[in-house]
Amino acid sequence: MFTLDDQPGVTVLRLRSDDGTNRLTRARVRELTSTMEHLHEQAKPLILTGNDKFFSAGADLNEISELHGPSAYDFALMGQRLMMAVERFPAPVIAAINGYCMGGGLDLALACHLRVASPNAIFGHRGAALGIITGWGGTQRLPRLIGKPRALQMFLAAEKLHAPAAVDCGLISLLADDPVAAALSIARSRIAPVS
Fold first, then answer.
1. What is the spatial distance between Cα 96 and Cα 48, in angstroms, rounded to a whole number?
2. What sign results for the dihedral spanned by CA atoms 11, 121, 171, 152?
3. If phi over 0 gives left and psi between -120 and 50 gives alpha, with beta otherwise, what is residue 134?
4. Surface-to-core class of residue 174, CB atoms within 10 Å of its CB (0-12 exposed, 13-18 middle, 19+ buried)
5. CA quadruple 80, 21, 143, 117: dihedral, nearest 10
6. Would the CA dihedral through 102, 103, 105, 109 be positive or negative?
7. What is the pTM of this model?
8. What is the 3-state secondary structure (H, E, C) of the chain?
9. Per residue of the chain (195 residues), what is the pLDDT tens digit?
């Protein structure tokens, strides 16, 4: 589901999946939450990343289609618990983003204290095209970063933002050809998190 690379002064958590999309399945969300809560005790900077094509494609739509009433509510709470574990982490958490960062994957990046992306990164909350909307806190965090009008465009029109536009509106803080290397440099310099 992911790997942990414990380096001097920083930990790199890399999402992994057989299909390369790094979907946030219920099992992955549970495991990530447990790991975040365990790493909380170490209190050293953390970098969250994916692969060259996907940070994360978001929640697993096959799982979502099977949710009803109480199970959908539990799924929302599960995702919120993960996002709060990231947001309240006692050291800087930096999202190092390549490729697609969509839906719940964007929620995960938004919960991080800082976002660094490659020029090929693409951001979106495509739920409106599917008749759903996030329940993991993105509707609160995104407007705080980029303003309500722009956030509404992303949520209601399922608009995607490419990396240069994401920098312009404040969704990401830095463009870098190698976002993991840039995030490592930031983490090691002990720059305070941006919120």
1. 6
2. negative
3. beta
4. middle
5. 120
6. positive
7. 0.93
8. CEEEEEECCEEEEEECCCCCCCCECHHHHHHHHHHHHHHCCCCCCEEEECCCCEEECCECHHHHHCCCHHHHHHHHHHHHHHHHHHHCCCCCEEEEECCEEECHHHHHHHHCCEEEECCCCEEECCHHHHCCCCCCCHHHHHHHHHCHHHHHHHHHCCCEEEHHHHHHHCCCCEECCCHHHHHHHHHHCCCCCCC
9. 999 999 989 999 999 999 999 999 999 999 999 999 999 988 899 999 999 999 999 998 888 888 888 988 898 899 999 999 999 999 999 999 999 999 999 999 999 999 999 999 999 987 767 677 778 999 999 999 999 999 998 988 888 999 999 999 999 999 999 999 999 999 998 644 444
Residue listed under structure tokens 């799924």: 75
Which residue bears the tokens 């709060």? 84
